[in-house]
Amino acid sequence: MNMRNDAEIILIGNELLKGDRRDSHLKYLGGALGRTGVRPGLCQVVGDERERVAAMVRDSVDRTRALIICGGLGPTEDDITREAVADGLGEPLEFDEEAWEIIRSYFASLGLTPSDTNRRQALFPRGATPINNTNGTAPGFSIDANGCLVFALPGPPHELIPMMEADVLPRLRAVFRRPPIFTETFRTAAIGESTLAPLIEEIVPRYAEFEFASLFSPSGVDIIVSEREGTQQREHLEERATAFGNELKKILGHKYYANGNISLEEVVGKLLAGKEMTLSIAESLTGGLIGKRISDVPGCSRYFLADVVSYSNESKVEVLNVSPEALERYGAVSEVVCAQMAKGVRERMNATWGLSTTGIAGPGGGSKEKPVGLCYYGLSWDGGEEVQHRTFRGGRDIVRERVAYAALYLLYKRLVKG
Amino acid sequence: MNMRNDAEIILIGNELLKGDRRDSHLKYLGGALGRTGVRPGLCQVVGDERERVAAMVRDSVDRTRALIICGGLGPTEDDITREAVADGLGEPLEFDEEAWEIIRSYFASLGLTPSDTNRRQALFPRGATPINNTNGTAPGFSIDANGCLVFALPGPPHELIPMMEADVLPRLRAVFRRPPIFTETFRTAAIGESTLAPLIEEIVPRYAEFEFASLFSPSGVDIIVSEREGTQQREHLEERATAFGNELKKILGHKYYANGNISLEEVVGKLLAGKEMTLSIAESLTGGLIGKRISDVPGCSRYFLADVVSYSNESKVEVLNVSPEALERYGAVSEVVCAQMAKGVRERMNATWGLSTTGIAGPGGGSKEKPVGLCYYGLSWDGGEEVQHRTFRGGRDIVRERVAYAALYLLYKRLVKG
Fold first, then answer.
1. pTM for this structure?
2. Fewer CB atoms near the end CB (10 Å): N or C, chain B?
3. For residue A22, what is the nearest residue in chain B, using CA coordinates?
4. Which residues neighbour B372 within 8 Å (Cβ) at sequence distance 6 or greater?
5. DSSP β-ladder status, B374-381 and B353-359
6. How far is B330 from chain A (nearest CA, A)?
């Protein structure tokens, strides 16, 4: 390959290649570089192998303007990044007294003394500049290799991310002098992939300046547009994104519920707070998932009163005023019990809204009449109620996630229409 | 690089490099290959660029015995994997009537007709064998390139994983004829990284046959050992892993709580079920997180009665019998209220154990006496109670995850000792 890249990434760690750990760096780095106007062309994941990494660094510096290497800076013998980068660039390692002092004082701040093996962490390829690590013992470093800026950073995200933000990104901003890559996320709920895709495909050809991606999550489908490589003005791109949003609104109505990283539970929270309304929840199969999502939002205590997760029939009767007769006659997984749960929790907590779920998450517990995945979700308010049901597919976790968001959407729909 | 690899992986998709989506394939593929005795040497993540991918395929087939390519098999013009592999191997694309029939019948099963653009999905490099996709429209394919087995698979995990299991892994098993790479996970809780690391470092040198990795999660630290490349007998490795586990037990006691992928909530669930005990929970800042974890375990309805998430003071009084005086005098975030919550939910639900949390998740709501991160977690049983508190660090999510597991550990400790 002889493409010239803005940036390349090398992630080092046997645990990534063996599947012991799911990488989180690329998602962060890709987003952070995009905000800096830099497009990574390649990311390579490799084990703790000195020779291999050295060869990769050698190849990489000839075809990229920036190279970010993550991991392998710890004190043990498996940590080979210092040596590999030095080998790759043909520079010897040199001991840096100043960096060693910083490592010692970091240990001292924890009431500890570094061991001799930690001395390795003060070794850097000749010509490198240490990058201070305020959250761990391993300093990073940067080095200019014939016009390619090489950065080596430690693996733990809580160490790497602050070092990227404080040191690497400002350096890249100064070198590339580019505006952020324009990107916008359009979030939808309550519409499936197969229904949405053909609707979107009709609009997409009119927006040649954008790349489109669809992301599926339990809450729905996100449509991400981002600027194709080129020289468009930000103002123009913003206008075009607004136009796309307007078209989406016409087609989807309230099913297109927010832009950006705003979650459905945040939108629901804002609507509740704005209307000075309150919410209480009664969950069966979702086991606290809706309450967890609602309370993920800071400041939720203004509108979120309580969530009763009632697994046992007794607790449904005792706390939610579900009638023993209804449980006996229709079973816990039924429209009647779902409605009683929503009403019971609303009245008990004196809330504006009562939201409820009951169903069979699986893998066991299904029958012919009530198969695994059958879920009821209901909403109660002063003077009315609405209960829906669906048989969700997927494993236990997916069923639970989906019914949680179906219930939240039921509330959202009422809030946004009322 | 002229290393000979068992396997290499190429992940294709602009959304991965731009950080729009967090990759999940490598974790699955690394684990699946390991179970097949195959060690991946390199994973490359690249955008939807035909020339670049073609060059990567060309380089890769000369240095690896198996190459797995994921993504880029959809019907749109951005889907370049078919063309790139054909270019890379110097083969033309040919239309496969049989594959086209399968695609048509897949659409028919959904009540749909494929469009002309879908015809692209029946194009394969000459000499390739289609791989059937029972969960989507895009067939995969395999092709033997001078002794390197190349597999191309669609990106969505629910399509890729069944195709790996049904087709790719059996083929690799037949070619490599290797036993699974031995690996074992030792799970610990309630001990921090900085305390655990030096304890482990003393044992590790005696287990030269293993590679060690530590993974940190909200529930604690996992120690993963896996077989170094070599020719050790499985029996020997199992013995050594048992010996390591025994040493760990001596050092950590109950803090080492399980092997494998068994979670702390599963261990707690088994202990409760075995003792025929029941649990009810009262959560404040954790907002349903503990209930969610407990109900993640299939069959939990045997011991999990209810979870009351009480955000408002009124609901603490109304449902949990917390005394208004205690709320007034000590505040909701206090040892007294935490103890009353645990006792209240236990008595109300007639459970063996009542577990409770209250605290300040942040970012707002802190004060000098009660800083953000201050959390109480308590346990109540017939005739006793235990309340602990700690000030957790990290953001809102991390604080909530940590106190949830601290509370679960409190219960676990009582169950395992009693």
1. 0.88
2. C
3. B27
4. B360, B361, B362, B363, B364, B365, B366, B399
5. antiparallel
6. 19
